[in-house]
Design brief:
This protein is α+β, with helices and mostly antiparallel strands and about 240 residues long. Helices cover about 70% and strands about 10% of the residues. The protein has two domains: about 5-130, Ribosomal protein L10, N-terminal RNA-binding domain (Alpha-Beta Plaits, 2-Layer Sandwich); about 135-190. A hairpin with a 2-residue loop joins strand 4 (about 110-115) and strand 5.
Length: about 240
Amino acid sequence: MTKQEKNEVIELLKGKFSQYNNFYITDTESLTVAQVGKLRSHCFSKQVEMKVAKNTLIKKALESIDNEKYAGVYDSLHKVTALLFSENPKDPAMIISSFRKENNNERPVLKAAFINGDVFVGDNQLKALTQIKTKNELIGEIIGLLQSPIQRVLGALQNKDNASKAEAAVAEAPAVEAATEAPVAVAPAVEAATEAPVAEAPAVEAATATPATETPAAEAPATDTPAADAPEATA
């Protein structure tokens, strides 16, 4: 590799280290070409970039950006190194773990991981990295914690409202029953009203009987005529 080619690789790596806050340093030694290709395919499907480079060039790229910031990963730069860059801090750990299960081996080996400024060294950190919380997951948990008290308050208010409605319904029940019984109390009055014409029947009969009793009174002058003639007979 010429000096110019080395510089090009260093510039490429600097761009990736500046772009991503998360990267894994793995050992891909003992993997076949086919297995390396399969690992690249897994990374591509998860939007994880995989770069294989010499350790010296990786170190120079890191030193040129911030020597002190990346000092914790320098001791992990040995043997064959493949770098995995990702926006999601745990995606590379999930890829490595699943790849091992599919191939029934312990490769690739995790040498170190740089996660948002923190360094995790050693293959024994892999399981912990698969369980790390992403930014979105943490935000979701915080939102859930903030909403929990509000939901409890809303639940209590809803239960109270339901209880008030139930009490109002119970209080209204007697009034409804009284209203339904009212027509029964009115029934006797209705019967009395229907019986009133029967009570008036004698008065009607009395009115029709009156002309019969007045007929003799109208004939009285005819009986008075002989009485007027009586004195003339005695004279």
